[in-house]
Amino acid sequence: MVRVLQLLDHDAEFESRRGSEGLSHSLGAEFDVETRTIGLGGDYRDLPTAAARLRRERATFDLVHAWGGRALTIAALGTRRPIVFSALPETRLKAIQWLRAVMSYRDVQVIAPTMTLRRRLVERGVGIERCHLIRPGVEFARVRGRRDLELRRQLGFADDDRVYLAAGESTRAASHHHAVWATGILNVVDRRQKILLWGRGPLADQAERLAHRLGQGEMIRVAEKQLRRSVEYEELLPAADAILVPARGPVATLPTAMSMAAALPIVAAVTYTVSELLEDRHTALMTPTAKPRQMAQRMLDLQNDSSLQWQISDMARTEAYEFFSFTRFVNQFRNVYRQVATGEKVEVPEDAPGAGLRFHGRA
Fold first, then answer.
1. Which of 79, 169, 170, 270 is such that its CA lies 20 to 30 A from the CA of 222?
2. Which domains does the chain have, with CATH numbers?
3. What is the reported pTM?
């Protein structure tokens, strides 16, 4: 049996939390996974406490899986076991420098969720033989594509409103204020144009305040605030007519992959990360940047062409099933854990894309 200790922040971002939870319950009887969280309300209140407690323990696990930079530091200082490190999408230069320092004296295997991040890590000095690509996995059974009128009413939307869901958490890179602004442009002409935010992320309140500053507070709903409960991202998909991805930097790809699986039409801004998932007029309508005027024009183009909506949504769903299989995600980590625990060379298996799909080097 392979014994794995997972470390992550108590308030970890969505993609890390979902990945950790998925591995905990899906690896099978061959693996014993224990998860501990860091921060107020977690198993360890802070970094020094976590490192000290791990050092005092006589480790009963074979490897540590660190989700994010703080978990990596604790794993490096608190135990001598080999480390699997899942890098966050917004990994910055200082974090890469610290990662390289840790790798110089510890056995660390790095997992990148996108090819863009893997390339950046390698260009900054992380050895390619110790840096691997594992894309996040979508649990398709949890994704519902059918429109839910009751949920829309609970959120305060009318049946004939055109509801855009801003993908994922509201972070600086996600740039949700541009989604609000773009929707506001259309809302001036048609009051049925509405924007829905999940409500998670440090800038959710800021995006909501922008709508009120524009004098269009009626067009925006923040899901967790409106429903007064914790909501998972997949729950919101049946309330939306389309998805907005106005990213201007590296963002978590899991919410967009879930949106693709729900067969919702997507309007997105071009970034390196987003372009790994989407292609203009194939799986989404895309703009060169997240400028609100450009986004609004593409949103209008999408509304006016029902055939295009169906075409890009259907292909997006097909590619989501091909490239973001949860089974593939679990199998790849199962292999990595086994190889790290036994001291073998780590190689991540990659399946070939299915016949008939367009493939531009994504898999």
1. 270
2. 2-137+325-342 (3.40.50.2000), 141-322 (3.40.50.2000)
3. 0.92
